[in-house]
TrEMBL record:
Pfam families with a match to the protein in the record: Cadherin, Cadherin_pro
Keywords attached to this entry: Calcium, Cell adhesion, Cell membrane, Glycoprotein, Membrane, Metal-binding, Repeat, Signal
Protein name as annotated: Cadherin domain-containing protein
Residues of the signal peptide: 1-21
InterPro entries registered for this protein in UniProt: Cadherin, Cadherin-like_dom, Cadherin-like_sf, Cadherin_CS, Cadherin_pro_dom
SUPFAM superfamilies in alphabetical order: Cadherin-like (SSF49313)
Ranges of residues in domain Cadherin: 176-284, 285-396
Source species of the chain: Ilyodon furcidens (goldbreast splitfin)
Amino acid sequence: MGTAWFAVCGVLFVAFQVVVAEESSCVPGFESELLLFKVTRKHLRQGTRLGKVGFTDCTDRKRFLFSTDDSRFVIQTDGVLTVKRRVVLHEGHRDFFIHSWDSQGQRLTVPATVLYDGQHDNHPVSWHRHEVHKSSSQLHDQTQMDTATKQDAANPLVPIVDFPKSSGGLRRRKRAWVIPPLSVSENSRGPYPLLLAQIRSDLDKVKRIHYSITGPGADQPPVGLFTIARISGHLYVTQELDREKQDKYMFQAHAVEEGGSSNTEEPMDIIIHVIDQNDNKPVFNTSTYMAEVPEASQKGVEVIQVVATDADDPNTDNADILYRIVSQEPEQPNPSMFTINPVTGVIRVNVGALDRETVSQYTLRVQAADLKGEGLAGFAKVFIKVTDSNDHAPVFKAQS
């Protein structure tokens, strides 16, 4: 009986280990690596509910703190994404990032896209759980992306782009189909090649189809930036992208029957939008500014305007700059002798107590920070000379 007891205990211990292992396998983060919210209107009203964001920090918590880098959208603690203020999808989509934090305080980020789907019933772009499998007919496709298939398995959600069939809801440019853009974040750490989408023809069910891409970034400079697996149609980017260098790429995808010489499908335009990341700090147009202000100037008198620019996407908070005065030297007679408009950068007199005979020059250290003053920062110095005013009457010297 003792042996049986120990055997049972051993089984229970192994089961306990399995449960612990399963629990420990939880990885904090978003449920998807890319969030897509489809809408049927280009004009989104304030308060419009777009969908719900799935997130876990591997605890029992159901509510989390979320933020976005686009102030037009807001996420409640239950993950519901809504329109904070009116949005117009001029280009048919809006790309931004959503952030949350795990139980250790580490920030986690996922790219998100709000996509106008005017013809959602016949839309050529669909989103599926991507199952990586390989048939015997695909074995020679190894020469293209052997290492990439391992990465594919780690990327469970990818768009599958079908060559569209003729319908009134699809646009054509010249002889090419035009589909909604795909998105990829700049400065992505990879690993590379990074899977972006799968290009697919319905004819691959009855024919053996070979896929290829042509145009800038494919077979034209920068050659090889994007590649496609000939049999599977997996579309990859092969290295990091820089939005400030180029914010959009457009090339064509082709589907040809094996042994054929002409396109089985009409060419399809593939547009890749590069999503901005906050990788540029604001830069002042000069590192030092020189200004003059008369002594005894009243509060509100304008002294000078400082200007900084940010190379990030101007339509996001990544380039939304706010200014502030970091320090003033000397601090007499008041540590806040000057004030700055946080939006325009205009510096004005704040205290009407300037006296050249007491302080002839002030040095201000000014900061410009993106993310509405909470992000990356640049600095400049402002030297303000207090000029003389006729504020002293002549004094006679006493005669001996």
